[in-house]
Amino acid sequence: MANINPFRSRRLAYRAVEDTPEDDDFIHSIQSDPLSYATSNSTLLRPQTKRDTLNGYKKHLMEDALLAVIILLPTQNVHDQPGTAGPPQEIWTSIGIIALKKDEPGHGHHRKSSISIDIAKPYQNHGYGSEAIEWVVDWGFRKAGLHRIAVEAFSYNPGATRLYERLGFQFEGRQREAIWYDGDWHDLLTFGMLDREWKEQQQKKSKKGSSK
């Protein structure tokens, strides 16, 4: 997935999480969506205040992540001033957050990480999550030199498990009844991809593309 701009993919762009009111509001809007929260977070489901978001999730993104970015989607092209000629200027809308966890101190030589991702509800089921995961995996192996990237899913979210397997992650393990949600016990599923598996996947895509 080599790209002239390393922070762009086919339809999306990626930028750093900023200490701005706009980013604070966007991150809180995702954290305060109970369905999105429940499918990506194992902490106790309860209404999230903005302070909860800033002192918890955002602090984690800023301090504990190897990489944490806002996922952006172009909404329209406009000129700097209406009615004037010139090259169009892209306007971007924040649609999600994706991060790679920083390993614990003293564990960096293992060269491993795990993915967390949240897509705002209006932009789900459009393939943006798949594209962002492929981009962050590419960044992790190609730029950060990782050896292994993992991602977890809850057994009550079968759509996530199908997505990860379709993207080439291998099912690695099941923690039985590790998650209490909505009055019942559910399993915590772990998927992983190694750098050599990713390279093989890229080679297959390259051969498939050259044969057309």
TrEMBL record:
The keyword Transferase applies. Residues 95-190 form the N-acetyltransferase domain. Transmembrane segments: none annotated. Coiled coil: none annotated. GO terms for molecular function: acyltransferase activity, transferring groups other than amino-acyl groups. Keywords: Acyltransferase, Transferase. It holds the Pfam family Acetyltransf_3. CDD domains: NAT_SF. It comes from the Eukaryota. This is Acyl-CoA N-acyltransferase.
